[in-house]
Amino acid sequence: MSDPISGNNVANNGNQIYNPNQEDDDFEITGTGGIHEQVPSAEDDDFVITEHVQRPSGNEIKKVDLTGSFVVEKFNLPQKTANILNNIRVAKPSSGIINALGRMILKVVNLFKGVSNSSVLSTPQKLNELRGVKIQSQLPTPKQTNAKPYTMTTEQLSRLAGLGAGTKIEPFAEERTNNTNLNNVLFGEKSIPTLSDIKQNPEFQDCWFLSSITAVLSTQGPDAIFRLFEPSNTPNHVLVRLGENTYDVPLGRIVDGNGNKFGSYSANWVVALENAMLMHIGVSYTNTEAKDVTAEKLKMAYRSPGDGIDALLGCSYLHRVGTRSLPMTSNEVLNLIKTKLEKHLPVVIGHASKATALSDGISPDHAVTVLDVENNNKVVVLDPYGEVKKIPVSSLKNYIVTSAVDYNHHQKVVDTNDKADEKRAQEIEAHEDNDKDDF
Known about the structure:
By secondary structure, the protein is an alpha+beta fold. The chain has twelve helices and 14 strands. Helices cover 28% and strands 13% of the residues.
């Protein structure tokens, strides 16, 4: 079977999860099997490694440097994943001249459209409203329950991030992060995640993930973010739950010897999630039966919002959330969005035609979070660049909608012979291959 987002061939072990209340074939979830055997890792409290870990590459374990920044030289990964990550390097992300010019045009367009800074979403009143939003869906039980969290070396992270030599972790906090100050390190003085914490780096095209984060936060509240984090026994790390896995994630920015940094300009908790998502992509797309795993398929840039919503809501890469592709009328899209928001389910839209997107002040192949519907004639969206915009309903027919289904029916299993799912996967893959702009 083909992964509906990546196009990778993946195994589903003959099971499919079914939601009897799903609206149509575009909102279907498929299931997968278990976890491959894992490579044991050394335990330590201060990052000074004195034992050897079984490493497929055969490299020796080095002592860790904790002066100002640090590197990690241990890992706990499935054997296949480790073999792949030790022998590939993803291309360095870059937005290019055309996208830079596109962003300049958008700035001019948005001058006439009354765009607001995302800080309007973090006033005391808005924060109280956000606190009042309650989680509508619980995270499924992770399949990694009896396994140690996945870890990666700094070199493996560097290869996945497309960084160069001398990569280290620049910690968020000057002192070691422990269980007593983790919340402050992640969320700062506000003590909660806010919608204005997110700001995309134009050189790093992860609008799909940042918009997924804001969509989950805006519809399910801060608790939906809090539940993703747990204290780690490893200094300057935090445990992050994404998909059906748990990751021991560095609390800091991944930066190489030339100063190139991975991730956005966002708050610490967002960067920690980006670090975790980088690991999640590496594990999820290598720990399958797919034989054609390439660096191109492991890159963080230009993915689908479905990948992000899957991970944040506790689904594996083989449990698909709903991606509703074209064609749909504008009213159909509007009704779909209103239904999902009323159920407190995350909604992300994007990938519009260039003419439509530019007229709306949105990048053509960009993803934005839907926050609200205004007077049934405009949709209020949050652009991950930190701007609140309004899109006319008449434009919606040209956008692709990504949302989620009711997760209370995950355990209902039926046959997987679903041709509609394969057809949708081909349509999405073809769309992603044709459109690569992300201003």
